[in-house]
């Protein structure tokens, strides 16, 4: 494939501008047909009219602005010429020489800075790394053994690879913006090939924008002040600083970061933001949550002096909040307890204090503390150790982490001597319960089991956890211990008591939701990125990532400790890279040294180091995924910035709660993306604060999950009919059908799952192989960067990909699927790569057919094949495709189960007649269905991709017209089957949600899904309405639906063909009622 090569603009090219008719602000068209010539003449008349209007609007300007306009028009002409030649980056020295040739006078740096001040969002005038101008030099060529990656190597030492050592160049260019139906993050476009007429129009439009901006400045200048002096004063902030020019930085004087304890108040900081160049009316909603005073309570039975002294010495606790005292009392009365209160409300004290009580009564007492992450378990172990070391009489008590990182040698000592273990459900399932004979003494003395972050356990994973808890209770009872107390803590959730009863299988639960913890004032802002050009919305909005990182830089410079939450790992790294680039460009290496990214995939050592640096206060900023959403103690945070609406309200409130964790005033900011869901909350901010959090669900009716744990339980101790009390009434039928029954009516696991059935049951879904990502920049000292799952490696570590780690770019040199390694070379590039791929979700075999209530149509359940093919990748800079590279890879294939509903032919014909897009209708209807299904997080659908559905050319890949839903491959949950069993009721609920929703184009209440991996970009509420009416057999009023004006689209949907069924399948009739 022919590669598009991008090079630094050469001054000789710019000197040739006059040869192409580029003079002043005009571009002459070459010879053409008479029709085109007439069009050009007409345009020329219009152009003269516009020029006259411009002259009239500038006549009253001060001479200084007229002179500045002349300079602007000159480099506008030069840069427009560069655009027509597809040059993607231009340096100031080469632009300057051509501008000076036009002006016949020197181009001064401060004049360009003044123009940048007038058009701050449209002009880029800054230093960038010289390597950022390269595009194709390092691309591997087909058939070439050596792809030449050494040209991007940063040197043979870490110092040479640092940001301080890299050479920077000054760039002057207009910021490119793309517009269209798709979002900024998805709408990747090739650089425009501009005709001479288009170049002329571009120049004129930019000139008009300058005139408008100057008029705005003059009109906004207060009476008695000189607009020229106002401009010159503001322009000082826009003079670019070369990060490598240390002497320049020194001339500006020391730049110190205020101590976080001495920072300004959040109220003052928000006012500073509004007065800064950063602000363009982005704050569309502001809520102030006032500070709350602590509400204290007394425990009914006084604690020992030793325990109170330990709390005072290690935690500075002298009194309990009301929720703490109530929980401690309930536990001492033998009740099971769930505490659902705000983040950082001191929930861990609730189960730590009773454990100290139990240990004072008997050193033989034991406890299990269970956490969703190893980092959280490590934190809590250290906290309990400090308590014990301060508690007279308990200093010899041993506690330990027992997880996958615990060595085999250490495990024996922990079983024999530890009184409290900190673990997770994976270890309980795979290691502790299967070896129950080694834990019998521990189980016999077990007093308390505490499960932190209970809201984390929901859906398929929560269903597995529920049966693991039941297996634990059963083994404790077998050794004579029926008095174990179960305690759980959670962020604020709907119906916490029901969720605890479902998870633990216990009934006597004390629910505590009255939060007595104090909290500082919190300001919550919704921040909508402004238009790139307020007078021309067609240019779209500023990048949400750019907005989030600019805001974060602003706050960190003022001593505000921030965390920036990103939804996925890739966005996290790109945001860190943007911070690295911008802070380097500003010469703020002092801040950059105190910012880190944190996400899954990093090595355990790296994660612990980042956590320690954050807790100690060494870090000023963290860019993280939801890996830090849970309660890992990273010290005081002043501000949380959320880049895009997270995956649900519960997640948003959990993230926002990470700021102000120690009663200080705090700031939470939701930076809205351009996607439909984010913009819905921009328009309806009350729902973020007033809407109830959805209830959590576990599926205790899943026979597949139950059977898996019955094999495990039978291995731990043979099952009998009495165990129905733990596993429910379905147990006997499953045991008779799937387990092995002996002559004494005991059930044993099926021999095919021996020697350890738990190894065949993955509670988190399929366990993928991992690839080692290795930095081989220095061949003599390779470094393991991280380990990533196979499906991530497939999309992130193909040869030629740009892989980002801690905001630094690496090029993938080679990948070995045999050794499962990817070798990377550190580099400096300012593009990213995106796979060119497609995924097919195909129904291949029908195993069940179900009637849809009141409809002649049917729903089908069976085998679904998933296939993903990566056939190349794009190089992308600022939303623009720089290059397309082809690749040949093997397809990634897997099999799962699910169900589908074919769109009736009559509905497709109606779509065609009314010019409704069937892809939009199908996608929206799928979301509407899932929005009415409580376990939607564990069900997938074939989300429609905007870049494919809105292509202008005909697509060679067409998909069948059907709604399709499936289980994630390897989850073993069969949640899709549960949805299929209730398909009629869910379809009607989806239809009624759309029909009753007052929104115009779709919202979170009807067709917009927070789980859509394609950001809900392909969707039509009207189309979904029509489709669901057709599927349900309801009448469609054709006269009420006009032909759509914007009805031109590429046909990507064809009528679905019947999927072959296994022999003997009969239609399951709809039965009304429970």
Automatic annotation (TrEMBL):
* Cross-referenced SUPFAM superfamilies: P-loop containing nucleoside triphosphate hydrolases (SSF52540), Winged helix' DNA-binding domain (SSF46785)
Q: Which GO terms describe its cellular component?
A: nucleus
Q: Where is the Helicase ATP-binding domain?
A: 328-511
Positions of the UniProt region annotated as Disordered: 1-54
CDD domains referenced in this protein's UniProt entry, alphabetically: DEXHc_Hrq1-like (cd17923), SF2_C_Hrq (cd18797)
Q: Where is the composition biased (Polar residues)?
A: 23-43
Q: Which residues form the Helicase C-terminal domain?
A: 547-704
Database matches in InterPro entries: CDT1_Gemini-bd-like, DEAD/DEAH_box_helicase_dom, Helicase_ATP-bd, Helicase_C-like, HRQ1_WHD, MZB, P-loop_NTPase, WH_DNA-bd_sf
Give the organism the record lists.
Schizopora paradoxa
For this protein, what is any one GO molecular function term?
Answer: 3'-5' DNA helicase activity
Which of UniProt's keywords are assigned here? ATP-binding, Helicase, Hydrolase, Nucleotide-binding
The protein's name is DEAD/H helicase
């Amino acid at each position: 494939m022919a590669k598009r090569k991008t090079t630094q603009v050469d001054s000789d090219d710019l000197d040739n501008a006059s040869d192409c008719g580029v003079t002043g602000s005009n571009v002459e068209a070459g010879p053409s047909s008479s029709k085109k010539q007439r069009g050009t003449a007409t345009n020329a008349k219009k152009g003269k009219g516009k020029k006259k209007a411009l002259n009239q609007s500038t006549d009253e300007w001060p001479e200084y602005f007229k002179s500045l306009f002349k300079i602007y028009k000159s480099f506008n002409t030069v840069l427009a010429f560069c655009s027509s030649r597809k040059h993607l980056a231009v340096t100031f020295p080469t632009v300057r020489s051509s501008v000076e040739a036009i002006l016949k006078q020197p181009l001064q740096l401060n004049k360009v800075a003044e123009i940048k001040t007038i058009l701050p969002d449209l002009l880029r005038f800054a230093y960038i790394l010289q390597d950022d101008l390269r595009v194709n030099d390092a691309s591997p060529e087909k058939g070439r053994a050596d792809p030449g990656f050494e040209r991007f190597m940063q040197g043979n030492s870490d110092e040479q690879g640092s940001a301080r050592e890299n050479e920077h160049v000054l760039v002057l260019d207009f910021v490119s913006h793309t517009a269209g139906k798709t979002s900024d993050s998805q709408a990747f476009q090739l650089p425009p090939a501009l005709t001479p007429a288009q170049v002329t129009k571009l120049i004129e439009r930019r000139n008009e924008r300058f005139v408008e901006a100057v008029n705005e400045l003059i009109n906004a200048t207060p009476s008695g002040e000189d607009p020229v002096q106002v401009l010159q004063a503001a322009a000082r902030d826009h003079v670019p600083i070369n990060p490598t020019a240390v002497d320049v930085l020194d001339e500006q004087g020391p730049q110190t970061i205020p101590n976080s304890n001495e920072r300004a108040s959040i109220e003052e900081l928000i006012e500073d933001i509004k007065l800064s160049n950063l602000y363009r009316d982005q704050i569309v909603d502001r809520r102030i949550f006032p500070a709350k005073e602590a509400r204290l309570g007394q425990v009914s039975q006084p604690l020992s002096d030793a325990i109170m002294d330990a709390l005072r010495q290690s935690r500075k606790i002298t009194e309990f909040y009301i929720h703490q005292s109530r929980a401690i009392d309930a536990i001492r009365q033998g009740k099971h307890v769930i505490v659902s209160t705000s983040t950082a409300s001191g929930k861990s004290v609730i189960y730590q204090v009773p454990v100290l009580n139990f240990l004072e009564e008997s050193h033989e007492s034991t406890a299990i503390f269970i956490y969703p992450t190893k980092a959280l378990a490590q934190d809590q172990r250290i906290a309990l150790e400090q308590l014990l070391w301060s508690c007279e009489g308990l200093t010899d008590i041993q506690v330990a982490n027992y997880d996958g990182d615990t060595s085999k040698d250490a495990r024996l000592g922990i079983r024999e001597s530890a009184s409290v273990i900190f673990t997770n459900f994976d270890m309980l399932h795979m290691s502790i319960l299967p070896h129950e004979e080694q834990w019998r003494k521990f189980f016999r003395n077990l007093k308390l089991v505490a499960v932190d972050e209970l809201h984390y356990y929901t859906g398929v994973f929560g269903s597995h956890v529920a049966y693991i808890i039941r297996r634990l209770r059963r083994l404790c009872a077998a050794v004579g211990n029926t008095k174990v107390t179960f305690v759980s803590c959670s962020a604020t959730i709907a119906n916490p008591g029901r969720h605890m009863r479902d998870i633990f299988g216990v009934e006597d639960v004390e629910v505590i939701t009255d939060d007595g913890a104090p909290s500082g004032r919190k300001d919550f802002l919704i921040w909508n990125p402004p238009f790139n050009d307020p007078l021309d919305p067609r240019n779209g909005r500023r990048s949400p990532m750019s907005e989030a990182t600019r805001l974060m830089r602003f706050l960190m410079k003022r001593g505000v400790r921030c965390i920036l939450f990103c939804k996925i790992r890739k966005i996290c790294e790109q945001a860190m890279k943007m911070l690295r680039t911008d802070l380097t460009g500003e010469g703020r290496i002092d801040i950059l040294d105190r910012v880190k990214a944190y996400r899954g995939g990093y090595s355990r050592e790296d994660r612990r180091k980042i956590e320690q640096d954050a807790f100690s206060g060494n870090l000023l900023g963290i860019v993280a995924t939801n890996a830090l959403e849970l309660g890992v103690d990273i010290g005081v945070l002043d501000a949380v910035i959320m880049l895009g609406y997270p995956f649900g309200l519960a997640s948003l409130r959990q993230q926002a709660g990470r700021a102000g964790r120690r009663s200080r005033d705090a700031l939470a900011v939701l930076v809205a993306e351009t996607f439909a869901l984010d913009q819905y909350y921009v328009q309806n901010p009350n729902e973020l604060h007033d809407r109830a959090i959805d209830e959590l669900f576990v599926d205790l009716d899943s026979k597949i999950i139950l059977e898996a744990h019955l094999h495990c339980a039978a291995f731990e101790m043979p099952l009998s009919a009495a165990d129905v009390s733990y596993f429910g009434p379905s147990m006997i039928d499953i045991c008779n059908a799937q387990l092995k029954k002996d002559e004494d009516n005991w059930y044993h696991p099926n021999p095919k799952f021996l020697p350890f059935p738990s190894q065949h049951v993955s509670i988190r879904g399929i366990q993928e192989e991992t690839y080692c990502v290795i930095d081989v920049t220095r061949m003599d000292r390779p470094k393991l960067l991280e380990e990533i799952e196979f499906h991530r490696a497939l999309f992130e570590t193909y040869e030629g990909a740009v892989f980002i780690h801690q905001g630094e770019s690496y090029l993938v040199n080679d990948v070995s699927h045999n050794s499962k390694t990817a070798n990377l070379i550190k580099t400096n590039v300012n593009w990213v790569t995106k796979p060119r791929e497609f995924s097919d979700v195909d129904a291949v075999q029908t195993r069940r057919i179900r009637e849809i209530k009141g409809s002649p149509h049917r729903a089908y359940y069976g085998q679904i094949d998933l296939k993903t093919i990566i056939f190349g990748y794009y190089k992308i800079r600022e939303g623009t495709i720089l290059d397309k590279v082809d690749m040949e890879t093997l397809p990634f294939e897997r099999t799962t189960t699910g169900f589908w509903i074919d769109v009736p032919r009559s509905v497709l014909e109606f779509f065609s007649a009314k010019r409704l897009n069937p892809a939009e209708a199908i996608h929206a209807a799928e979301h509407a269905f899932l929005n009415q299904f409580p376990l939607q997080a564990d069900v997938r659908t074939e989300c429609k991709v905007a870049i494919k559905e809105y292509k202008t050319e005909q697509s060679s890949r067409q998909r069948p017209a059907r709604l399709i839903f499936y289980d994630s491959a390897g989850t073993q949950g069969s949640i899709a089957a549960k949805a299929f069993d209730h398909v009629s009721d869910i379809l009607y609920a989806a239809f009624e949600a759309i029909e009753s929703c007052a929104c115009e184009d779709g919202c979170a209440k009807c067709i917009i899904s927070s789980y859509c991996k394609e950001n809900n970009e392909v969707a039509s509420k009207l189309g979904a309405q029509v489709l669901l009416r057709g599927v349900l057999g309801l009448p469609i009023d054709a006269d009420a639906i006009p032909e759509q004006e914007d009805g031109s689209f590429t046909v990507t949907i064809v009528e679905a063909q019947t999927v072959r069924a296994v022999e003997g399948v009969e239609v399951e009739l709809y039965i009304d009622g429970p």
